[in-house]
Design a protein that fits this description.
Length: 399
């Protein structure tokens, strides 16, 4: 019998293990149980934190960059590059993980650092930028992003507007001349898995503001500021059409699905960078060549920290399952906790799910030391889904 081939394509276990660390642990468990198994690790992500690491694991070169963190302090980040393609992860430079001491700054946090990374990638000759959105600390409508790329934003007195979402209430004029020059010949793709608009009850401030430390008063002020920002962008677009037909920055996109992503960075990317929004996991699977790597695989193992209702709405595990399922390859998942019954698992394209809590009911222990538990899950998966003839003597009970 030929060797079994297994692909481990898991997202991170947030706050616990990177996607690559998950793959290493599962692979160890599979190899303990099987004499004849080839295990290939393909770290994946859906555009949020872990996207940069997944690109580097897929062979992209990490280009270090010191950029502006969400509260203005310098942070060491970077972008991943392969040829003229660059991957920028907002979470790594403008994300919650970059808040000094973890202290939220809902009114003043900025996306400027993300724009610095995009600018550096362009200046290094990259013509196609994949921008992963998720995990942001800011609600500034992407104003910081576009200003780092050359846009100028002024108040009624002709003074530069300060950073942060709250300051957008004073935005009165927008100059995009340098921005347009910077982006000439550059394609921007957004990797995103949310469909919220920019403003309103399901917008960036209302839905995600509280996660970034915004109280109800903050949310109200931020939503008004984002409305002012959207009005200004729409006015600028109309002025462009009037004076230079064909040069418009874009129609009013505040209600576009995904405009509210990453505190409104999605809006700025769509309206001012002429970006195209794609489901994050689909974009990343194409980027790492996942479909080509499926050839000859007998089983795919995917995973994420928690399998729940959110998993069914564009998360990495479902994207992996869809791609592998289309190729006729069964898919199982590993996770920290599983809140999906068998019917919902089938809906997600998963044959089965294996949770750390199957072995250790204490979630704190699962988070603190998950690797040994993942190894046990790997052994169990081998017993359940790989040919019995490949099992070790220990597993088959042979002395």
């Amino acid at each position: 019998m030929s060797r079994s081939r297994v692909i481990v394509a898991s997202d991170k276990f947030k706050g616990s293990l990177t996607s690559n660390q998950v793959a290493i642990a599962v692979r160890e468990g599979l190899r303990r149980a099987c004499l004849d198994v080839t295990v290939d690790a393909v770290p994946v992500a859906d555009g949020g934190d872990g996207t940069l690491a997944a690109a580097v694991a897929a062979g992209f070169e990490l280009v270090p960059v010191t950029a502006t963190g969400p509260t203005g302090e310098p942070v060491r980040s970077g972008f991943a590059r392969r040829g003229e393609v660059a991957v920028v992860e907002l979470a790594d430079v403008s994300g919650l993980i970059r808040l000094p001491g973890g202290r939220p700054a809902p009114m003043t946090a900025t996306s400027r650092g993300t724009g610095v990374l995009v600018a550096q990638a362009i200046d290094n000759g990259c013509k196609r930028i994949i921008l992963g959105l998720g995990g942001s600390a800011c609600t500034d409508g992407g104003a910081g992003l576009v200003r780092a790329l050359g846009a100028r934003l002024y108040d009624g007195n002709g003074t530069d507007v300060v950073e942060g979402g709250a300051a957008l209430t004073g935005a009165a004029s927008l100059d995009l001349t340098a921005l347009r020059d910077r982006l000439a010949g550059v394609e921007i793709l957004i990797a995103c898995d949310v469909d919220n608009p920019l403003t309103g009850p399901t917008g960036a401030a209302a839905v995600y503001g509280p996660q970034k430390g915004a109280d109800p008063h903050h949310v109200e002020k931020l939503d008004a500021a984002l409305t002012q920002w959207a009005d200004l962008v729409a006015q600028t677009a109309a002025r462009d059409v009037q004076h230079s037909p064909g040069a418009a920055v874009g129609r009013d996109l505040r209600d576009a699905p995904g405009a509210g992503a990453a505190g409104g960075v999605g809006f700025a990317a769509l309206a001012l960078l002429r970006a195209e929004l794609r489901p994050g996991i689909d974009l990343m699977l194409n980027l790492v060549g996942f479909h080509q790597q499926l050839a000859g695989a007998d089983l795919v193992i995917t995973g994420e920290g928690a399998l729940d209702e959110q998993t069914l709405h564009g998360k990495a595990a479902v994207g992996v399952a869809a791609a592998a399922g289309a190729a006729g390859i069964p898919v199982v998942a590993v996770c920290g906790t599983n809140r999906l019954d068998s019917a919902r698992l089938r809906q997600a394209g998963l044959v089965a799910a294996y949770a750390l809590t199957d072995f250790e009911p204490d979630i704190r222990r699962c988070i603190a030391d998950p690797a040994p538990l993942l190894q046990q899950l790997g052994e169990r998966i081998a017993a359940d889904h790989l040919p019995r003839s490949t099992m070790t003597a220990t597993e088959t009970g042979i002395a």
